[in-house]
Amino acid sequence: MNHAILIIDDDTMVATSLELLLKRAGYRAFSVNYPDDALPAVEEHKPALVLLDMNFSIDTSGRDGMSLLRKLLAAYPRLPIIQMTGWATVQLAVEGMKAGARDFIAKPWDNRELLNAVSIQIDKLPPGFGHGGAAAGATEGSEKAGEVDTFSGIIGQSEALNKVLDQARRVAATQASVLITGESGTGKELVAEAIHAASRRAGKPFVAVNLGGVPAGLFESELFGHKAGAFTDARADRKGRFEMAEGGTLFLDEIGDLAPAAQVKLLRVLQERQYERLGDSRVRKTDVRILSATSRDLQSMVTAGTFREDLLYRINLIHLHLPPLRERPEDIPLLAEHFLISARKRYERPKLKLGPDAIKWLRRQPFAGNIRQLQNLMERTAILAPATVIQVEDLDRNTRPQPTNESATPSGMTLEEMEIKMIKAALGRSGGEIAATARELGLTRAALYRRLEKYGIGT
Ligand SMILES: Nc1ncnc2c1ncn2[C@@H]1O[C@H](COP(=O)(O)OP(=O)(O)OP(=O)(O)O)[C@@H](O)[C@H]1O
């Protein structure tokens, strides 16, 4: 049976063309032009989905759309609503998502994108929803049973982290570009991976590229690929990151480090959704979802003229900010425990545990390097602690700079040397297998690649 879709838009032209589009796609579509008619129309048609225009012309601020959204959700909490917004009201769209809307489409819309967004929501409906009536379906049931929470590997219980993760869960199912900000080591890449894994692109690749590490001259080749002979070192054809991520997600890490010329090239591809390999005139279409991350303040960079506003606009439909660890000390004991458990296995010290004072001490540390620093500290301590109960002194010794050599550890090695040693050892154990090595070290694949590149370690 065809699902019913209700369109709420005061522009009759828009409403009619949406009705036509949806009918052609096999839905039963209805529309109303006045906010006051919305609730009675839901009663009457029992839609499986509502397309709601947020900008009624009576009040272009979008307040009307917002209050109607809230009213609809108050009456039918489980009714899927897709908002439609103009570019100028992205902020409003984000507010709407927080209020419970499932997705949003920017006007003017792209037919394929709109139908895609509609079918994603329809596919998620519980059986009978929108047939037996929105009101019945709207109040029944909770989330689908048996669903894997792809965010469960992100440890922490602080309100600050949970708030971000809730937003991330909500936007995961949409196609929206997400910008993840936060200091180094706060888990931006981890969140990006979880968003990808929770999205309908999960079966397709997640490709990360560290834009800070790509030399300006290699930017196009790295992202779009090249044809053999395109430049001196281009000996063979090469796929770019966009091509590798086709159908999946492209994670643009350190996007704030992108040079102005590269910003223009990236923007063009994001706008046109097509690109050419260097030295190849064939135009390739791209279907990737863009997630970006940076520890920089892009808004200030826009003001200073070092980051393009139009690019920020493209990548920043949704903004998630990961708070530094010092602002969520309640997460520290859980994280420390989590890292200790994996280090215990790795270094075959199953009895190792944290003493109560050590936990208190950890909670007070500033952790400028955030979770990565805590992870390294637990790792080093697991190797070096003399007894099974880790004491404050064991942790402190591994944190404090040594008097003889600023960055030397008690074993005489610098942290970098130690990291290199650990990476090489793990690579040896896994026979050079990247995924297994990354897992063993508690790193993401991209983070491991970054380190291999940084330390010049070949696999
Ligand atoms: N909440 C968390 N639970 C478990 N592990 C975490 C959490 N947050 C971060 N980590 C771990 O900390 C390390 C750093 O995280 P990640 O690489 O995602 O940070 P980042 O913000 O992307 O850092 P950078 O900006 O330096 O690239 C990783 O090994 C990651 O697995």
From TrEMBL:
Membrane-spanning intervals of the chain: none
Lineage: superkingdom: Bacteria
SUPFAM superfamilies: CheY-like (SSF52172), Homeodomain-like (SSF46689), P-loop containing nucleoside triphosphate hydrolases (SSF52540)
Domain Response regulatory: 4-122
MF-aspect GO terms: ATP binding; sequence-specific DNA binding
UniProtKB keywords: ATP-binding, DNA-binding, Nucleotide-binding, Phosphoprotein, Transcription, Transcription regulation
Leader sequence segment: none
Species of provenance: Neolewinella agarilytica
Residue stretches making up the Sigma-54 factor interaction domain: 154-383
Name this protein carries in UniProt: DNA-binding transcriptional response regulator, NtrC family, contains REC, AAA-type ATPase, and a Fis-type DNA-binding domains
Pfam families referenced in this protein's UniProt entry, alphabetically: AAA_lid_14 (PF25601), HTH_8 (PF02954), Response_reg (PF00072), Sigma54_activat (PF00158)
Positions of modified residues (4-aspartylphosphate): D53
Entry's Gene Ontology BP terms: phosphorelay signal transduction system; regulation of DNA-templated transcription
SMART domains noted in UniProt: AAA, REC
